[in-house]
Structures are given as structure tokens and as C-alpha cells.
Amino acid sequence: MIAQPLLLLAFLLLIIAAARQAEERFPVIQKISSAVVCTLLGILLANIGLIPRGGEFMSSLSRYAIPYAIVLFVLSTRLADLKTAGPRMVVGFGIAGFGTFVGAFTASLLFAGLLGPETWKLGGTFAGAFWGGGLNFAAVGQGLEMTPSLFAGAFVVDNLSTVPWMLGQVALASALAGVFLRRAKPDALDAAADDSEVDTDALRRTWTEGSISITHLAILAAIPLLALAAAGLFARVLPGVPEVLWLTTLALILGQIPAIQRLQGSAMLSYFALHLFFIVIGAGSDVREVVAAGPWLFFYMILIILIHAAVLYGIGWLLRFDLATITLSSQAAVGGPGSALALGMALKWKHRIAPAVIMGIFGYGFGNYLGFGVAYLLRGVLPG
């Protein structure tokens, strides 16, 4: 077993490099992402005894990797971008969040007997993920102190949702086109929407490669530490508010400062930190528990998405929204900005791509609030 901290850290970093290389070379890895590969490798290597499943060093990595990722990702959220997204996309994304709330709450009530005493944590974690993305899943799951095995199994299941739901929405777009076309208002396309094409590969590259100056690197390294210290202080003063929500709030505030908005490399650094966190989460998992939880977690996740879709498409139809807004709002919520971009390009809805990507980025900031809200609501409703 590699237990010496320096050797262990070097090995974990090489795992990230190998996962990134695999995503760049193999299309099948691109579909599940290098972050999922890191989780699976963490599970495998820990369960065969090559890396430790816990310990002080691994706990420290888990403790600090997610706060870094949260702050750096949320720094890219610009409130001024809401104007660019347009009122119809903003409302559509809000309805998507409501659909996620209804789905997570209802599915948790129905599956509580099958998923066990941590169902309320699962409900909050999936609610955060389906109004933001994997970062929110990690943040809420860690904040709620979900057991590592359940977290790892749920994370893998969550990442299985993006591509199938994207394919499902392509089918829905074809099946519902006539129904929505007859209902959509003539002014369904907001004048504020950005008409420019968006490059899928370019968006992904902002998370995986780029240049950064030493000055920007130093500032971006310091900001999460300062935010974490401040969030810890606020959490001690007001212990009823989770520390991760203080982090999210502070990052949202900082992200509106022009000097911080000009910093380059925050998304790339946060994505790197997430990879390290997911290896540690995988390493803390017992493979037998992950496999045992898998089937019911999968059906649970499917039900959340189906209810989310029923609520969103139903309300969207009643409000006479156009199909592009509803479809891309859902994909931005469930899969994040990258998958919303890919779906918009596939369906040739270029007028809605930029607004959907903007709302997906907002999901990084707002999803945590929804996740904790659903979790605490479920904790008060489900039997102890």
C-alpha cells in the first residue's frame, strides 16, 4: 500500500493525469467524464489495497478540495449575465429547479424504505445536482456528511443521467414540436438572447486547459482559503447555516467584483480540485456497498428526472413557452452548461445556446441552496 503522504499525493496526481488523457483519447470516456473515472479508480485501487481508504491525509484532501472547487467555480457567476440570458430563459431555469424540487422530494418519499436512513441526504444531494451539476452534488453530499460508499454509488449514478437524458430530450423535441409550436407565444424568443454560435470544444477547454499568470494563480489560491476561514467563522456564529452555504454566498458576492472577474484560470483550477476530491471519495468506498446500492439508486434517479420533466414541460406548455427554452433549461439544470451547449448544437437551437450556458453556470451557485433546502425538509418529513 502507498501510505507515505508525499508518495501518495504524487500517485493521486498521476491518476488525474491518466484520467484526463483517457478522456482526450477515448470517446467513451468523454461521455462519462474524467471525474467519474477518478471515482471508479479510487474505488478500485482502495479496494485492492494499493491506496488507503481513509486516514488523516485523505481526510485533509477531502476537507479542502471541495471548498476550493466551490469558490473557484462560483466566482464565474455574473449576475449581470442574467440580462443576456433573457427573462424567458431565466424563468424556464427557475421552473426546472421547481421540477427538480418536486422530483427529489416525491422520489425520496417513495424510496425511503429501500434506500435507508440517509434518503433525506440523497434527496438533497440529487436536488442540488439536478439544478447545477456534479460540483453541487459533491458540495451538498459532503456538507450533509453522507457515508462514502453511498456517496460514491450515488455519484456514479448521477453521472449516468446526463447522456441518456440528453438523448431522451432529443426524442421529446421531435415528439412535442407540434404541440409546443401551436402554443408558443409569437414573441417566444427574447430579444436579449445571444444569437452567436458557441463552440462546444472551446467551452470544455476553459475547464481543462489555458494560460494563467503567477499573479492570478496566487490570488486564486488565496481566495478560497480566505473564504473558507470566513465561512468557518460565520458557521460558528450561526451554526444553523451549513458552512458550504456560507462559502457559496461569499463566492457569489466576490464574483461580482470587477477585479476578481478579470482573473483567469478559476474554472480550470476548480475542475482539477474536483478530480482530487472524487479519487478520495472513491477510495473511502466499500465496493460491495456501492454495488448493492446501485440498482435502487438508479431507479430513484430516473424517477427524479421523470417528475422534473413532467413538471417543467407541463408548466412550460401552460405558460406557452417555446420548446427550445424548456428543453435547454432542463438540460442546463440536470447536466450543467456543457451538456446544454451540446444539446443546443445538436438540435440547431443556436439562438438559445448562450442563454442556456449562462443559466447552467448560475446553477453552480444556486444548486447548493436548493439541495440543502430539500434535504432539511425531507429530514423533517421522513421517519427517523
Secondary-structure map with pairings?
Blueprint: H1 5-25, H2 27-32, H3 34-47, H4 56-74, H5 81-85, H6 87-115, H7 119-129, H8 134-143, H9 148-159, H10 162-183, H11 200-208, H12 214-237, H13 243-254, H14 258-261, H15 266-283, H16 287-318, H17 323-335, H18 337-346, H19 350-381
Could you characterize the architecture of this molecule?
The chain is mainly alpha-helical. The protein contains 19 helices and no strands. Helix 1 packs across helix 3, helix 6 packs across helix 16 (287-318) and helix 9 packs across helix 16 (287-318). The longest helix has 32 residues, at 287-318. The radius of gyration is 20 Å and the shape is globular. 50% of the residues are buried. The model is unreliable at 187-196 (pLDDT under 50).
Q: How would you summarize what this structure contains?
A:
The protein has helices at 5-25, 27-32, 34-47, 56-74, 81-85, 87-115, 119-129, 134-143, 148-159, 162-183, 200-208, 214-237, 243-254, 258-261, 266-283, 287-318, 323-335, 337-346, 350-381.
Any descriptors?
384 residues, mainly alpha, 79% helix
How big a fraction of the residues is strand? under 5%
What Rg, in angstroms, do the CA atoms define?
20 Å
Task: Characterize the overall form.
Answer: globular
Average pLDDT across residues? 84
Question: What letter string, H or E per element, gives the SSE order?
Answer: HHHHHHHHHHHHHHHHHHH
The description of the largest β-sheet is: none
Poorly predicted segments:
187-196
Task: Please report the number of helical segments.
Answer: 19
Query: Percentage of helical residues?
Result: over 70%
Through-space gap between termini: 39 Å
Alpha-beta content class: mainly alpha
> How many strands appear in the DSSP assignment?
0
